[in-house]
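Recall from the previous lesson that a structure prediction takes nothing but the amino acid sequence as input. Here we apply that procedure to Protein DETOXIFICATION from Penstemon davidsonii. The sequence below is the only information supplied.
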Amino acid sequence: MHPISMADYDEKVEQLLPVYDDDDDDIGPINGINDFAKEFFIESKKLWYLAFPAIFTSFCQYGLITITQVFAGRLGTTQLATVAVQNSIISGFPYGIMFGLSSALETYCGQAYGANQFKMLGTYMQKSWVILYAMAITAVPLFIFATPVLKFLGQTPSISTEAGKLAIWMIPQQFAYASILPSSKFLQAQSKVAVIAVIAAVALCFHAFFSWFLVLNLGWGLVGAALVLDGSWWFIAIAQFLYIISGACGETWSGFSWKAFQNLWGFLKISVASAVMMSLEVWYVMALTLFAGYLDDAEISIDAFSICINILGWACMVAIGLNVASSVRVSNELGSGHPRKARLSVLVIGMSSLLIGLFFTLILIVTRKRYPAIFTNSSEVQQIVEELTPLLGISMVFTNVQYALSGVAIGAGWQTPVAYMSTVCYFIFGIPSGVLMAYKFKMGVQGIWYGMVIGLCLQTCLLLWMIWNTNWNKESYAAEERLGQWRCETHTEETS
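The prediction returns the following tokens.
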């Protein structure tokens, strides 16, 4: 068999386009602004039906980390810096990989669910569990030897020692992540986002109470904070698992199967491409936090930087919810053979994320003299955070749009090209620019943050260019071919 040429591929796709154009379930011809407004409103309802619970979930889960940081800040600047370094560097490195590995399920499960291949979802989730638990085991030495690792990376001895002690207590959290991430993607692909939100809300309430009780009331300090954080994540993991096996997911869960270990290498290759794409964003922040620790007055610099990152993360919880909604909508519609609906979803999600980013930036600018006091009692840290606020606002706009567009890329299965783009934007332009401005031009933390803005801006612009030039009919055909390949692999495994 001769390989198909690009010209033959394009011709084959064009022959299929009338099939998509005549599909009654796709969007009909749009004549005028009234038709467009009607379709825009319909798609907006579908997106926000998914996005609202996903946003709420993101706020609750991010709130677990934020509450821990708030209580750590009440213990002192060293404790706050310890939590920031441990969370962003030691825990952040393996989490970034696992988050990326699990994002392959958004393509696999989303497109399979759209094509009514329900039984494939449970198998894919179990494959992802196997891969992520193996990753969690591999990461254990990093936590055990966190102190020498941080010292090698140039962190101060006091922060490295305390972060190393804290890291030992945070090992169980990584295994909770390995369970939560695949099960969340599995449920999201079926639009079962409300149950995830309810579980996250209950976990947040327990986390807030027990953080106060153990950290401040009983005086257990950072050890108490770590125990509560571990327990909160494991509560989420167990609750989601019990919901899945309860029968509420219908045909998508039919029990454990040895198929999870079959063709694992093929699944791993796709997962690795997803991991590179998503991990680079987490590692980008991790690297910038690391360089902030090399500045003069390292504790103050890290505290200010971590507070701004925390605020940025809170604002981006909306974008993460939109990221989930866009990946589900795009993957479902491409799997169903509805390219125009997928394209309209992209337009709605892009406009929504831009407006939300601008709204949060306005709030930030108005409250710039007050919000730093929520996180720290140090006047020096508060002053630096206030000076960083304009850059933080710009970052909010770009990050919101970038996260939303990344959801489109995941839903369409573009992980590999986007991974290359992220590498160039973040590590060829972003980090070197930040380091140059921070150290060469003596701009300190502001210089590092300028580097972040440069990387985010480039990544957002390239994603916009990529989406603008996309032929969604071809993407729908590619999804059909991808599902056909998966079905063939599954059939081969069953008959072998």
